[in-house]
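Lecture 7 notes: from sequence to structure.
We start with the chain below.
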Amino acid sequence: MKRLTEGTMVVVISPHPDIEVPSIPLTDYVMSDADGLSEKPAFVDGPSGRTITFGQLKHQIANMAGNLAARGLGPGDVAGILAPNVPEYVVMFHGSIKAGITVTTVNPTYTVNEIVHQLNDAGARILFTVSSFMPQALAAATESGIEEIVVLGETGESATPYSELLVDAEPPIVEFDPATHMAVLPYSSGTTGLSKGVMLTHQNLTVNLAQASVPLEISSDDVLIGVLPFFHIYGMIVIMNMAMLHGATVVTMPRFDLVEFLELVQKYRVSVALLVPPIILALANHPIIDQYDTTSLRLVFSGAAPLGSDLADACADRIRCDVTQGYGLTEASPVTHSTPSGQRRPGSVGPALPNTESRVVDPETGIDVAPGETGELWVRGPQVMTGYLNNREATAMTIDDEGWLHTGDIAMYDDDGWFYIVDRLKELIKYKGFQVPPAELEALLITHPAVVDVAVIPKPDTEAGEVPKAFVVVNQDVTPEEIKQFVVGKIATYKEIQDVEFVDEIPKSASGKILRRVLREREG
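Predicted structure tokens for the same chain:
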């Protein structure tokens, strides 16, 4: 393990050799081999079999970019995408990016208010969606700066047909600096607080694709299953764009269903499945697994939440393939650490990617710790975001003056520089890999007439990983079920309160900050 020591600073260097940082637009980078693969399927809609080849993909992206430019959209503008995983998502995404537009991807399970917040905060002018999401899209558009809705499927009179943007059009010549031009604007709660726009440049994304390619080793012979949502940075980069870069085929799923997932793995001979722990739990334990042929799988990769070594072993034994994991966060495009294929160590997320430095810092003293000791993981590299949109304070709290991204996760590393995520310093709840900020739920619950004070923490859950639990102080008779129902419909379903406990007071520090650690220790 390479370590640099400067005073109290101990920097763990990646064991991988540095790579050259690609400095070209994202679409040009991931489509660089498209001409040689023109007849090869790029994206296949799992339920219907609808297929877009690499040649068709290149042509449709160019037309989409040309038609968007003809509308006066280009650098400085933002396009929103509110859609499930379908092959056309890729055209919406890269057609916008090729025109120099920044893309903000929206979670389809969001309420209208949540969608409005993101579209307004991002400054989106155009919104791509599908017919089944038109009610939310229309409602959000009326309260935001959306000038046009483009819809895949039945449109009605209030939207532009998706096909209209695929007519032949000359792609625009757009010039910008990939190192500074914002490609995507996904939203993340960061280490604390409410959802914020994460500014990721073309270079942030191209370099992270190059970095993550080293341990993942995806090739044009691979078939990936696109089950993790493309609106999430994990699905967006590590599945959608990684496959395009290496000429692999992606079979998309609009939503997760275990039986359909297994049918698609069997039918399309899926070789690489990039998943989250709840799906891996099903692969390890569900009896229906034995009814399907999963022998095509060579790699199951886990991200978005820690994967326990026992679960990894159980899954690997059950489906007889390599089960590894990595670590990252939206603010790092997203991958910072990854286990190389065939080199799994129990519980480890692997060493840092090329060009990536790591530190583990005691959050109390600010001093870097030795191997085997725990502290907050800090990372630095060319994949780290430029900052949060219109939020200098949150940016300064997350990235320090020396460029270190403070992840908010507690980690340790061994003598070989392999890292282990052991706890969470940050307050976020991870429900099936999705972020649930306690502050958002607390702000909502405190508006209930019976609630005097409230604190929300993660409660361990076998299936979801963590679910939100509320500790509530009340001043009148109310039931736990009434408290839970109060948030329903006001937030996305995955954020809903799953457990309520009434208490006499909420533990707080002298400055008034909620001591969630005390509540978590009490919860056990």
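Points to note: The two ends are 35 Å apart (CA to CA). Residues 1 and 320 are 31 Å apart (CA to CA).
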